[in-house]
Amino acid sequence: VQLVESGGALVQAGGSLRLSCTASGRTSNSFTMAWFRQAPGKEREFVSGINWSAGTTNYLDYEDSVKGRFTISRDNAKDTVYLQMNFLKSEDTAFYYCAADPAALYAALRRPSEYEYWGQGTQVTVSS
Question: What phi-psi label fits residue 41: left (phi over 0), alpha (psi between -120 and 50 degrees) or beta?
């Protein structure tokens, strides 16, 4: 499975960006997908995740600092997950990574170790 992120850019505080993560290879609509970010000198942190459950329900999770500003979604027909980021702040500046796993549990959605596949990342820089 290969993950390719796009959409990172330099944007002013208060602006918006939409990140995309397209999966290829032996993917499945049932994969759990997530976004993590890593700022210089800091550990990789969870941003948002989307977990497919039996049936059609997608469970969503957001880190507290992005709730109400970021929205995760997926287009199964395109094997793509999006992260819509609004009202961006300087503290959102980081390298953003997409992650995927065929068996990640909702309870462990926020753990980087839960994910088998990672993209190369895309840089988001928010100027104040």
Answer: left
- pLDDT tens digit string along 52-97? 765 566 788 999 999 999 999 988 889 999 999 999 999 999 999 9
Asked if 85 and 73 touch (Cβ cutoff 8 Å), the reply is no
Q: Phi, psi (5° rounding) for residue 94?
A: 180, 170
Beta-carbon contacts of residue 26 (< 8 Å; ≥ 6 apart):
1
User: Which residues lie closer than 8 Å to 32 by C-beta, 6 or more apart?
Assistant: 49, 50, 51, 52, 100, 101, 102, 103, 104, 106, 109, 114, 115
